[in-house]
Write the structure tokens for this entry.
Amino acid sequence: MRILALCALLVSTLWAPALAQAPAGAALAPVSESDADGPREWEVGASIFGFANGNFIQKPKGDDKDEPYPGFAGFGGGGGVGFAAMWRGTVGLELQIIGSKEPAEGALNFDFGAVTLQLDQTSWHVPLTLKVAAPTKSVRPFLFVGPDFVFPEASGTSDPANVRIIQEGPGQGTNPLNDGPTAELKLGAHAENYTAWTFGFGFEFLLDLNGQDIRIPLVFRGSYNPDLPVKASERSRVTATAKEYLSEWEWQAFVSLGVAYYFL
């Protein structure tokens, strides 16, 4: 009882000057649920966003001196949707579904000269990240990390387009043609589904539009693929018609801007 009485005395002391200055008949402004009860227990929302990206594979460190592999780099873009659930605005999970255009190119140095291989890749990304944020009022900074499940569709063309390389026959190398001593192969690209680690930081700009929780997320994200082979010879394969270079990105960078609506 003493504690309740002390609290009542403290409240009356703090509010008495303000009540005394209020004009007669004036009513106090209603207190919103979030102000009265503090942060919401759960914040659940969806977002849509667009981005620019950078796609990179470094030159391999293996000593396959006879295998030309320069590394690749390029820039693209895309967009996606996301779904997030945050406990008290501080920690939670976010799932995104992203469609990404991921071109890149590199120069292959053969005995007859340099050939540019242009990679034209489209990928679906499904990152599932742990998100940690500061529950501030207007601008909310956050960090995140988690796996990025990547489903690429790779294709590649050479410049000049009519370049063909000679693949040595049995006993000297890999021959994709039955009983043929050599094969003339065009250049291409291939990629399998893989998992990268994605991480980054960002800022949510909180807008209060007619009581609706709308936010503008600005995100800086990186991804690293730890399973890319080290040797150049392990980053290409030979089919019946082409020599295809691996285009599972070693590093990627994304800068995105979007809009999010939190309905819970």
Remarks:
- The helical segments are 2-21, 33-37.
- The chain has two helices and 13 strands.
- The mean pLDDT is 79.
- The radius of gyration is 28 Å.
